[in-house]
Write a structure and sequence with these properties.
The chain is globular. The chain has a single domain, classed as 3-Layer(aba) Sandwich (Rossmann fold), CATH 3.40.50.1820. Helix content is 37%, strand content 19%.
Length: 287
Amino acid sequence: MCDDEIHQGLTQDLSVSRRSFGLAAAAAAGYATTAHAQAAAAVVETDVSVKTPDGVADAALFTPPGKGPFPAVLMWPDIGGLRPVFRDMGRRLASSGYVVLVPNPFYRSQKAPVIEGPLNFGDPAVRARLFAMRAKMTDDGIDKDSIAYVGFLAAQAKVSKKARMGVQGYCMGGPLTIRTGAASPRIGAGATFHGGTLVSKDPDSSQLLAPKLHGEYLVCEAQNDDKSDPTAKDVVRAAFAAAHVPLKLEVYPAMHGWCVPGSPVYDAAQAERAWAELLGLYKRALV
């Protein structure tokens, strides 16, 4: 499942305006003229600061219109970090009735965006810079961040005090999703999309955390990731089954990065399919 994060899906992150992205997503989902589009426009976006044991993380908070209360979701971005396209994705999810927090995972290094302009992952200098920031995110630090983010969401006035929370991640955010679920019993559902290296030989490999998870999980893998390590999906399935954690794992006919608009491998049809699976998961589990 993606031996490293040098892949075609992040060689280019085209500038996507919020309006063009919103219209494209709405058209793909078939709801451009419905109440969903109106709800997206009414979502309140706020730049926030979250205190963690290692400092202060900058993040974007998205709150649906209405009194609530609403379930909450933590969204981990890919290795490009918090940037306009993930703000758009946070807004869209919030329009479906969730309070969404999208953090800057690299806050220990600098505030978002950590890369100005289009993200060219094919540039060795860009890769070196991103990997250096990623290296500062130790497992212990990620766990502490996860608990801080969940606590921040729980303190929001419109967040349900009873409902379980969700967590989702893309690329680098895939393993972070699993770590979050293991760190906080408040998490009742998790989803990874073209998650980077969910199975490795390291003692911190994601599937080893399955016994600490609660709720239900969705793993959507890219076909090229599966091709690079075709046994990984079986390892994940076996680990989750042994831990009695409900899991739906599917290999999509799309390339790593297909869910993020602006990626040269973005696949609107398959991205919408994955988004529908995500909403179904949250509707079932975040109660």
